Amino acid sequence: MPNRLWYEERLWNDGLEFIAGVDEVGRGPLAGPVIAAAIILPVGVQIDGVKDSKKLLPQTREKLFNKILDTAISVGIGLIDQKEIDRINILNASLKAMRLAVMNLKVKPEFVLVDGNRKIPELGIPQLPIVGGDDLSMFVASASIVAKVTRDRLMLEYDKIYPRFCFAQNKGYCTKSHVEALRAYGPCEIHRYSFRTVKFLKTIGSPEN
């Protein structure tokens, strides 16, 4: 099992106190926003059970979400909606969401640990991209949990507005039932029209059009 505080411990040993972990969720779905979270936790903190949000059961994520928020020095959220995703593409939207999450922290971090292989553009803060960061850094994993729970809760609200698409179950991802609903009804307002599947089904039209 990897030491998920390896990066944090080295930064603490260098005298840094305010270290942020940053991650995003929602790059792959056909609908809804991409959401990023930035988390600053206290020096030396260890939260048992924190790991990549995709490897946790929903009820475990919810419990850890509350524990992370109770423990954190500061939490920032960045959200880029489907219209801007269509305008600037999903990669740029993901990076922008992460930058907004860091900017929304009430405490400015001295260093940022970023999930992935790219630095956050125009951040102005020292940073390190970590491939598989949500497995290797507890701070990044904490951010992935907060981002995932935040986005899932938003998709539950969208499910009430657009019940045909079962967003409560698929969270906007490309499931068989989601594609069937798209084919039957066409895309709704929160679909990403630039995504290939949505674009194709919108082009061929639906029985109602």
Could you explain the architecture of this structure?
The chain is of the alpha/beta class and 209 residues long. It folds into two domains: 6-159, Ribonuclease H-like superfamily/Ribonuclease H (Nucleotidyltransferase, domain 5, 2-Layer Sandwich); 162-204, no CATH class. Helix content is 45%, strand content 14%. It is built from nine helices and five strands. It has helices at residues 6-13, 58-71, 82-88, 90-103, 133-136, 138-161, 167-170, 176-185, 196-204; strands at residues 19-25, 34-40, 74-80, 111-115, 127-130. Strands 3-2-1-4-5 form a five-stranded mixed beta sheet. β1 (19-25) and β2 form a beta hairpin. The radius of gyration is 18 Å and the shape is elongated. The mean pLDDT is 94.
Structural class: alpha/beta
Strand order of the largest sheet: 3-2-1-4-5
CATH topological fold name of the largest domain: Nucleotidyltransferase, domain 5
Distance between the termini: 53 Å
Provide the number of structural domains: 2
Helical region count? 9
Low-confidence stretches: none
In brief, what are we looking at here?
With 209 residues, the protein is α/β, with parallel strands linked by helices. It has helices at 6-13, 58-71, 82-88, 90-103, 133-136, 138-161, 167-170, 176-185, 196-204; strands spanning 19-25, 34-40, 74-80, 111-115, 127-130. The chain is 45% helix and 14% strand.
SSE diagram, text form:
Elements: H1 6-13, E1 19-25, E2 34-40, H2 58-71, E3 74-80, H3 82-88, H4 90-103, E4 111-115, E5 127-130, H5 133-136, H6 138-161, H7 167-170, H8 176-185, H9 196-204
Parallel strand pairs: 1-4, 4-5
Antiparallel strand pairs: 1-2, 2-3
